[in-house]
UniProtKB/TrEMBL annotation:
Superkingdom of source: Bacteria
Quaternary structure, from the entry: At low DSF concentrations, interacts with RpfF.
Domain Response regulatory residue range list: 551-669
Protein name: Circadian input-output histidine kinase CikA
Domain called Histidine kinase: residue spans: 305-526
Ranges where the PAC domain occurs: 207-259
Enzyme nomenclature, EC number: 2.7.13.3
Enzyme class per UniProt: transferase
Organism: Clostridium beijerinckii (Clostridium MP)
Length: 669
């Protein structure tokens, strides 16, 4: 062979190598050449693009860095097998960002110059596996759906039968495959099959066709059928697919609905007649409602006005009684004065009770939650209980749970109202024996404390026929004209409503002629800040508030109330002046300064609300503030709020005694 021929052969080999190298570098599959130790020697562009490393980074890695590290032993075994022959397998490879993807690997061992190498062709099979998973999912859905899905040839031979078909028709798959579809078609419905096949051969699809079909046990069922043509990969029509749904129960429900519809139609006609009758009465009902609303409004206004009218003279009566008590009196006068005092306060109690009932009925009865010390409240109640029992020669016992947190937040006034009510009842209906008062803790949850109060007596008890009515309004055990015990029959009814507002209850146990025990539960908030506040308050206990040089302006139009209030202020040691209405008060304030104003509400010329507004508007410019205390006979729900809203600092309702007046003044001067 000439040298020229050898040169041509070498050129051809060189060209072939270039072609092979270009083909490998640009192949659609990943191609990697490994050393016998698994180190990467060469990679193509697909490898760089797929793994996300640069070519230099890939050439610094080992085959085992691309494989699933949890199955390293399997990777070693597969690589060793590839060095001595060829191997095909599927595994997981990892990219530079840590994400994994499934691959199909074909590896072959090659020997060059006595060195062993492994050449691997790697294909990403993510899309293939996804398609296979989707096909498997679709096949599972078809197989396990509740509807019957049946495949058949154009001649009616059954080729597929899912679980839904087994459940509907009762045949197992092996019982029907290869048999004619007529096995489930009643004789009178066989023409349905031929009509549907005609449409399928014309390329049509039959939807929602209703017919009868026969189960394995011979039972006929109602079905809804959808039939679609089946084509092969070349587009040739080869059969049909039935999707069948059992609608027997639906048909039954439809019949029941039709029957019900007819029944409802008859009722509808009757309702139309009733509606006509109601429509004719609607205007009368509206008119009656308007009259009822007017009556309720008039009732509320009447109670507010009657309260004011009664409380104004009551303030005079109680005020005069308090003033008389501090004068020199003989024994008869003291006795008469005590009788007068008790009667006036009883009358005031009845008035307050009636107002409470009105608030409850109108839905305006609310609790006023404030911090208070339960121990002080209970000490006062037990003291009053002891005094009252001693007057009737009754023994008195009481027990207070030592584990109670006494610093609470709640409505102390309403609590006192309920306890005094049931204690007074126990004393009133007990002529001899004893009274037992107990307070115990039921539970503590978060910042809430529930207490149970009980009052046990040895009195007349409650008759059996009266027990169901005891908490009703205006109900008393003795309703005769010669009844022994007085009262309105409202106390327990109000106590029941107060207990509900306090998230509690009230009930009793009683045996006639042996005694009764009344129980009352209420919920309070624990005032954890009270100890801190008390420490701060105690720091100022040594400060003595002097009444000298403290000037008070009384604005009042009632002569009796003026005399009584002025006398109280005089005895309390305060300097004061008085005027008869708001207009005079404004004139007085032009050239005089006062530490406190006691302001009546209902006055001629200029009332207390408007007077307060004018004073507050002027104070915006002067940056000063005089304390104004509302002093009014109005005590309905919302009256105090209205006073505060217009700018007053506090509220005192008539009638009031000297102590009440002193306390409200001391809060401000």
């Amino acid at each position: 062979m000439s040298s020229e021929t050898n040169e041509n052969i070498n050129k051809k080999k060189y060209n072939y190598l270039q072609i092979y190298e270009a083909a490998i570098r640009n192949a659609n599959d990943i191609i990697i050449l490994f050393s016998s130790q698994g180190n990467i020697l060469e990679v193509n562009r697909k490898a760089v693009d797929t793994y996300g490393y640069t070519e230099a980074e890939l050439l610094s890695k080992n085959i085992f860095e691309l494989r699933n590290r949890e199955r390293i032993e399997l990777a070693i075994m597969q690589f060793e097998k590839a060095k001595s022959g060829d191997v095909e397998f599927e595994t997981i490879h990892f990219k530079s960002d840590g994400t994994s993807f499934p691959v199909e690997v074909k590896s072959i061992g090659i020997e060059i110059s006595n060195d062993r190498f492994v050449l691997s062709i790697i294909r990403d099979i993510s899309n293939r596996m996804k398609s296979e998973a989707e096909i498997r999912g679709l096949a599972s859905l078809v197989e396990n759906t509740e509807d019957a899905i049946i495949g058949k040839t154009l001649d009616g031979i059954i080729t597929s039968w899912n679980i839904g078909a087994e459940n509907i028709y009762g045949y197992k798959k092996e019982e029907v495959i290869g048999k004619h579809i007529s096995i489930i078609i009643p004789d009178e419905k066989i023409n349905d099959f031929y009509e549907i096949i005609k449409k399928i051969k014309n390329g049509e699809r039959v939807r929602g066709f209703e017919s009868k079909r026969r189960k394995k046990n011979g039972q006929l069922i109602d079905v809804s059928i959808t039939v679609s043509p089946i084509y092969d990969f070349e587009g040739n029509l080869i059969g049909a697919s039935n999707i069948t749904r059992d609608i027997t129960e639906n048909k039954k429900v439809e019949k029941e609905l039709r029957d019900k519809y007819e029944e409802i139609s008859a009722l509808y006609e009757e309702l139309i007649a009733i509606e006509e009758e109601l429509r004719s009465n609607y205007q009368e009902l509206e008119k009656a409602k308007e009259e009822a609303d007017k009556a309720n409004k008039a009732k509320s206004e009447f109670l507010a006005n009657i309260s004011h009218e009664i409380r104004t003279p009551m303030n005079g009566i109680i005020g005069i009684i308090d003033l008389l008590k501090v004068t020199e009196l003989n024994n008869n006068q003291k006795e008469y004065l005590d009788m007068l005092s008790n009667s006036s306060r009883l009358l005031l109690g009845i008035l307050n009770t009636i107002l409470d009932i009105s608030k409850i009925e109108s839905g305006k009865f609310e609790l006023i939650l404030k911090p208070f010390n339960m121990k002080k409240t209970l000490d006062r109640i037990t003291k009053e209980l002891s005094i009252a029992c001693s007057k009737k020669n009754l023994e008195v016992f009481y027990y207070i749970d030592p584990y109670i947190n006494f610093d609470l937040i709640g409505d102390e006034i309403r609590l006192n109202q309920v306890l005094i009510n049931i204690i007074n009842n126990a004393i009133k209906f007990t002529e001899m024996g004893q009274i037992m008062f107990k307070v115990r803790k039921l539970n503590t949850t978060n910042n809430k404390l529930t207490l149970e109060f009980s009052v046990k007596d040895t009195g007349i008890g409650i008759k059996e026929e009266f027990k169901n009515d005891i908490f009703k309004k205006f109900i008393q055990q003795d309703m005769t004209y010669t009844k022994k015990y007085d009262g309105t029959g409202l106390g327990l009814a109000i106590s029941k409503d107060i207990a509900k507002l306090m998230n509690g209850d009230i009930w009793f146990e009683s045996i006639e002629n042996k005694g009764s025990t009344f129980y009352f539960t209420a919920e309070f908030l624990v005032n954890y800040a009270e100890n801190i506040n008390n420490d701060n308050l105690n720091a100022g206990d040594d400060e003595i508030v002097s009444s000298k040089n403290k000037r008070i302006l009384l604005v009042e139009d009632n002569e009796i109330n003026i005399k009584i209030t002025c006398e109280m202020l005089n005895r309390l040691g305060y300097e004061y002046e008085y005027v008869y209405d708001g207009k005079q008060a404004l004139e007085k304030l032009k050239e005089n300064t006062f530490d406190l104003i006691l302001m009546d509400i209902q006055m001629p010329e200029l009332n207390g609300y408007d007077t307060t507004r004018i004073i507050r508007e002027k104070e915006i410019k002067t940056k000063e503030h005089v304390n104004i205390i509302a002093m009014t006979a109005y005590s309905m729900n919302g009256d105090r709020e209205r006073c505060i809203e217009v700018g007053m600092d506090d509220y005192i309702s008539k009638p009031f005694d000297m102590n009440k007046l002193k306390n409200v003044i001391l809060r401000f001067i």
